[in-house]
Automatic annotation (TrEMBL):
EAL domain sequence ranges: 1-249
Protein name per UniProt: EAL domain-containing protein
Superkingdom of this protein's organism: Bacteria
Organism: Salinarimonas soli
Length: 249
């Protein structure tokens, strides 16, 4: 069982870790970005996945210090990989905090990380509650040069409205569409429609959860811009990113 006090302690004493999952160009040949994904290397329980502690962090107010830790670590690590955009997941609770944009600016300044290399991954949950405040925060972030991606696209109930209203640069097609693609022709039709819609709106279209060569071929043929999934790479520690990019000592 994951315990609140342990998590608070882990955040305060720098015990969390970030892994990075590379995003690839449509041909699968070039790394075009990295998504930071938090892990908790627990002293007795081994590596704990975020599903097991992010919800608790959100309930207990720990998502604010956790989110700040993630930003700082991602920026510090990211400086080793010039030219690559670093994507960071943001919890709706963290995003709605009134100091969120100021905290991002502080972390950028303290680490010297270039704002234009930051991509924040938001979900529909971010904009659902107070759309006006969300829109204002998003405009501030865009003005700084920060990029915004709509994560888990297609799983919400009115994603299309959000695309029209909010200043996203990218959509990430939820991996559930790919999982069911072979089983039902309908999922393939949906993926096709989403890619064309995204492209028509001038957005970067990323597919998540690419696991097979067949999926890769299909997505490449459709004109999906970026691909992410176990076929190309799992999330890996920073040292393995260095090796992948050929910059290891
Ligand atoms: O890495 P993994 O596939 O186990 O991630 C599971 C879930 O945890 C995903 O929905 C992912 O977006 C979320 N997640 C991973 N890292 C972070 C983080 O740093 N902050 C937040 N808020 N969510 C994260
Ligand atoms: O919600 P979000 O998109 O941030 O979730 C990212 C999560 O998806 C990470 O925990 C990562 O481990 C997982 N993931 C990434 N690629 C694949 C894949 O190809 N297949 C599956 N099943 N999960 C993946
Ligand atoms: Mn994500
Ligand atoms: Na996602």
């Amino acid at each position: 069982k994951v315990v609140e006090d342990d998590l608070r302690d882990a955040i305060a004493t720098d015990q969390l870790a970030l892994h990075y999952q590379p995003l690839f160009s449509a041909d699968g040949q070039t790394v075009v970005g990295l998504e930071a994904l938090v892990r908790w290397p627990h002293p007795t329980q081994g590596l704990i996945a975020p599903d097991r502690f992010i919800p608790m962090a959100e309930e207990r107010g720990l998502i604010i210090p956790l989110g700040e830790w993630v930003l700082r670590r991602a920026f510090t690590d990211g400086k080793r990989w010039p030219g690559l955009r670093i994507a960071v997941n943001v919890s709706p609770i963290q995003f709605r905090h009134r100091d969120f944009v100021a905290k991002v600016v502080d972390a950028l300044e303290e680490t010297g990380f270039d704002a234009t290399r930051l991509e924040l991954e938001l979900t529909e949950g971010v904009v659902v509650e107070d759309a006006d405040a969300a829109e204002a925060a998003m405009m501030e972030l865009r003005a700084l040069g920060v990029h915004l991606a709509l994560d888990d696209f297609g799983t919400g109930y009115s994603s299309l409205i959000y695309l029209r209203r909010f200043a996203f640069d990218k959509i990430k097609i939820d991996r559930s569409f790919l999982e069911s693609m072979e089983a039902t022709g309908e999922s393939a039709i949906l993926v096709h429609s989403i890619v064309h819609l995204g492209r028509a709106l001038g957005l970067t279209v990323t597919a998540e959860g690419v696991e097979t060569k067949e999926q890769h071929r299909f997505l490449q043929a459709l004109g999906c811009h970026q691909l992410q999934g176990f076929l190309f790479s799992r999330p890996i520690p920073a040292a393995e990113v260095d090796v992948l990019l050929g910059i290891a000592p």
